[in-house]
Write a structure and sequence with these properties.
Blueprint lengths: L2 E3 L2 E3 L5 E3 L8 E6 L10 H7 L3 E6 L16 H14 L5 E6 L1 H12 L7 E4 L17 H11 L10 H19 L13 E6 L7 H5 L9 E6 L10 H18 L1
Parallel strand pairs: 4-5, 4-6, 6-7, 7-8, 8-9
Antiparallel strand pairs: 1-2, 3-5
Length: 255
């Protein structure tokens, strides 16, 4: 909804969700959701890192407050949409956190952003150059649902609500198409440190695939392996929060 202030109409930024005032924050962490996910996934992280770190989250089209907008099916289109908002938000040093598909969107955004980020946190995703032959986006609804059950992260009650599930599946399918058809540019790399986080039982990424992120930065990488599967971070919020805070604090101390 547009807001009129002093005779001037201001259009809210639909790409970025903010969870509270940023007063006192020293760093901004921009979070990118997984396939089918939404910005609200990162509310617990925002609450845990406040007030030193302002957490904002990207809201992809076609879900929650953007439900009426067309879905995007290419990583480049998602980056094209959010990048102007990231470039305008230049009042704080910033870093990126992306989970699963979000790690790739964050990686491409970091590559193209006008200001280099402090760090990229790549969670639950193999390195961009480690391509698997995947076809989830071409499966029928039953096949897509089976994949969602396999990975976890979706409230099991959703599968018992046919109308609700039918409304969510198009976003899942569009995101799976985006990530499964993504191919990085040769030699694609960021110029900041990359911290990689994975669950040891995640079927989407092995430790070897995670270590290959070192080929996608001109800086250093570090890998952290947690118990659990693809959504390990839901069970280890305190450890993940501490890791992010320490990573941002180390960089701030060097500035």
């Amino acid at each position: 909804m547009a807001v009129t202030t002093g005779g001037k109409t201001e259009v809210p930024d639909l790409w970025i969700s903010r969870f509270g005032p940023s007063g006192g924050a020293r760093t901004r962490l921009v979070c990118f959701p997984h396939a089918g996910g939404s910005s609200s996934f990162f509310f617990p992280l925002a609450r845990a890192l406040a007030p030193d770190v302002e957490v904002v989250a990207v809201q992809y089209p076609g879900r929650q407050n953007r439900r009426s907008e067309p879905l995007l099916t290419r990583i480049t289109d998602l980056v094209d949409g959010v990048l102007p908002e990231l470039d305008r938000a230049g009042d704080l040093p910033w870093a990126l956190f992306g989970h699963s598909m979000g790690a790739v969107v964050a990686f491409e955004a970091a590559r193209r952003a006008a200001r280099p980020p402090l760090r990229l946190f790549a969670s639950g995703r193999r390195a961009p150059s480690r391509i698997r032959d995947e076809d989830v986006h071409t499966r029928d609804d039953a096949g897509l649902i089976a994949e969602l059950r396999r990975l976890g992260g979706t409230d099991p009650r959703v599968f018992d609500e046919p109308e609700l599930l039918a409304g969510l599946l198009p976003a899942f399918r569009a995101d799976y198409r985006a990530i499964e058809t993504y191919r990085p540019d040769p030699g694609a790399a960021v110029g900041c440190p990359v911290t990689v986080l994975i669950g040891v039982e995640d079927p989407q990424v092995t430790e070897d695939e995670a270590r290959s992120w070192r080929h996608h930065t001109t800086d250093r990488t570090d890998l952290h392996v947690f118990p659990g599967g693809h959504f390990y971070l839901a069970d280890h919020q305190r450890r993940v929060t501490a890791l992010i805070a320490a990573g941002l604090g180390d960089l701030s101390a060097k500035e």
